[in-house]
């Protein structure tokens, strides 16, 4: 986490929800059981707002993102866009995916090595039958910072740097003029010197185009630098959320505290024991209690909440802009 945030000015007030998950559950069959990959999530992204979704690998972040994109159907609950429940009919879903676009973490894997930059960016406009294809591609490349755009038309992915490839992926999303970007680890595969450029690009797109974004990441430092709000996910559920400065400077949930402790600026390192539990066997009580440093240290017992931690489930957090944490110890 850096000393000063690199964000451009964030929206002054909370915007109406543009994209929303309401009591979302997504389950998959797994060895004769049901894996609860997303187990009750409320999450809202306002117009012009950047929300960071943070957590360890396997916590359900990517499944939640795919469900918000319409690539997975919820077992229960719903995705809402512009105030209306998502329609999974093929025509409606095609229109929706023009509005909500995915940016993948690995530009090398998401770009066809046999396609030129022009073909890669033009693919979406061709699927959706947009007119003035050349102009659409040129504008998208320019907005993504590849200028002059025609200099890149006939290049292939292997002729570009990692940062340029990620800009091509972003241009492919921008070509459809979306309102929301869902970026899954957008800078994870990039060198440190390029990461800041891509983050600055996402912020500039928010400022110039009014884009909203959900940024999926395991990196709380990235969340600090780009997001207005942060949602921390553990074992299929959001356990803490709120304005990024408030959550990351005064985290209330022990899991958030542990994630923050790996940053160089942290005064104390918290080492979590074990791995996240099997999503087919979610523990009773607080789902984090088996790994919780507050419970293990005896502080929860001193506060008289250790029994609750082991046996009493916590309510699903609502989609509200204020800071909140699903933790018995934090509630005292």
UniProtKB/TrEMBL annotation:
<dbReference type="GO" id="GO:0015833">
    <property type="term" value="P:peptide transport"/>
</dbReference>
<dbReference type="GO" id="GO:0055085">
    <property type="term" value="P:transmembrane transport"/>
</dbReference>
<comment type="similarity">
    <text>Belongs to the ABC transporter superfamily.</text>
</comment>
<dbReference type="Pfam" id="PF00005">
    <property type="entry name" value="ABC_tran"/>
</dbReference>
<protein>
    <submittedName>
        <fullName>Peptide/nickel transport system ATP-binding protein</fullName>
    </submittedName>
</protein>
<dbReference type="InterPro" id="IPR003439">
    <property type="entry name" value="ABC_transporter-like_ATP-bd"/>
</dbReference>
<feature type="domain" description="ABC transporter">
    <location>
        <begin position="19"/>
        <end position="260"/>
    </location>
</feature>
<dbReference type="GO" id="GO:0016887">
    <property type="term" value="F:ATP hydrolysis activity"/>
</dbReference>
<dbReference type="InterPro" id="IPR027417">
    <property type="entry name" value="P-loop_NTPase"/>
</dbReference>
<dbReference type="InterPro" id="IPR017871">
    <property type="entry name" value="ABC_transporter-like_CS"/>
</dbReference>
<dbReference type="GO" id="GO:0005524">
    <property type="term" value="F:ATP binding"/>
</dbReference>
<dbReference type="InterPro" id="IPR013563">
    <property type="entry name" value="Oligopep_ABC_C"/>
</dbReference>
<dbReference type="InterPro" id="IPR050319">
    <property type="entry name" value="ABC_transp_ATP-bind"/>
</dbReference>
<dbReference type="Pfam" id="PF08352">
    <property type="entry name" value="oligo_HPY"/>
</dbReference>
<keyword id="KW-0813">Transport</keyword>
<keyword id="KW-0067">ATP-binding</keyword>
<dbReference type="InterPro" id="IPR003593">
    <property type="entry name" value="AAA+_ATPase"/>
</dbReference>
<keyword id="KW-0547">Nucleotide-binding</keyword>
